[in-house]
Every structure is written in structure tokens, then in C-alpha cells.
């Protein structure tokens, strides 16, 4: 029986080799990319770290999520029917979903912060205290959303009818209480993901509109100023030493504003 289980596991793991190769590529790219972001924002841009507080935090969460998810998926591919550690399966699913939800919610907070800086530069902005509070709230919400993983995921028995072999796979399970709750949980997660996507689209569309208007405004003002400067040069007397007064147009304070996190 053990030999049959080993052969079955080897057969399935061979089928999943292409998927495992892609996972390893994701792991290398994710670790390198997020490590570079962390280095740049904590070492090279250290003097301005308060303005860019969310970016290195997001990179750290993404790095942890990348390592957890790819390593976990790789272990499942290597042990497709021999994953009999129920506790490890539940814990890794929980941690993976927690980090994923933190990354997604942090993207929304970053979008809100950018929207306030660009679209409402004169309104009250997030200071360091509220940025830290936002991180704590994101972590708390992610933990609350992810805890049902302990109920709906685990090591599940799988069967091969031809050889009557019994194996164990780390996947979603359904408890004896009902088959409805797992579906409700997945539906709630999908709705939350849809809400996050819609929020990101709305905020960045609003940001794009403001940036486009400002670019068009400055372009028109630059053309108008260039034409007036040419006319003044043509009419200026050779002996004239009069100073030129430049009137800058009102632009909602956007000229003095730095677009940053």
C-alpha cells in the first residue's frame, strides 16, 4: 500500500512539474523585486521615509506573502497525495490569506492617501500616527477575514479507485455541520476582492483626471507665456532696463505640491 501511494504521488508530482517551475520563477522575481524596493526606500530614500511610509511596509508584506504562497504551493505539488499534516495545512492557508488580504487592503489605503494629496492638497492629510493606525486596522481586518481558513481548509482524504489507495491532500474541506458555510465564505471573499478592485479603479481614475487637467493647464500656460515673451522681446528698446513682472496663474496649489506617498 505504501509503495502504491508513493507511485501515485510521484505520478502526480511529475504532472505538476511545469507549475512548480513557474512557482520558482515567481519566487525569485518576487523576492528580488520586493527586496530592491525595501532597500531603496529604507536606505537610499531614508531621509524622506515618512512621506513614503506605506511603500516599504507593502513590500515587506508582499515579500512574506510571496515566500509563503510559492513555498506552500510548491510543497503541495511535491506532496499532492501525501500531505497528511492537517495543522500545518490550516496554518499556512491562514497565513497566506492574511498576507494576501493585507497587501490588497494596503493598496486601497495607498490609493486613498494619494487621492487626498493630489485631489485635495489643502485638506487634512494622514500623519504618521494615522498611518500606523491604518496598518494596525489592516492587520486586524485581515486576521478576521482569514480565520475561517481553520474551518474550511485542511488535510483531506483522497482515493484512487483502481488500486484502492488512500492519500491526503491539503485543500478545502467541508465540515459535518453543513456544506453551505464554505461557499458563503468564498463568496464573501470574492465580494471583498471585487470591492477592492472597484475602489482602486475609482480612486486612480479621479487622480488621473486631476493630473491630466493640471498637465493640460500648464501646457497652455507655457505656450501663452512663450508667445508673450516673444512679443515683449520684439518691442523692447535696446536701452531699456525695465524689469519684467511674471504673474503666475492660480492652480489650486498643485505647483507646490509633491506627489508622493
The structural domain count equals: 1
Q: For the record, what CATH class applies?
A: Mainly Alpha
Total number of strands = 2
Put simply, the count of helices is: 7
Distance between the termini: 59 Å
- Our estimate of the beta-strand percent is 5-15%
Biggest pleated sheet:
2 strands, antiparallel
Measured on Cα atoms, how large is the radius of gyration? Answer: 28 Å
> Largest beta sheet: what is the strand line-up?
1-2
Please state the structural category: mainly alpha
H-E order:
HHHHHHEEH
CATH-defined architecture: Up-down Bundle
Helical residues, percent: 55-70%
Question: What is the general shape?
Answer: elongated
Pfam families: 7tm_1
Keywords: G-protein coupled receptor, Membrane, Receptor, Transducer, Transmembrane, Transmembrane helix
Subcellular location: Membrane
InterPro entries: GPCR_Rhodpsn, GPCR_Rhodpsn_7TM
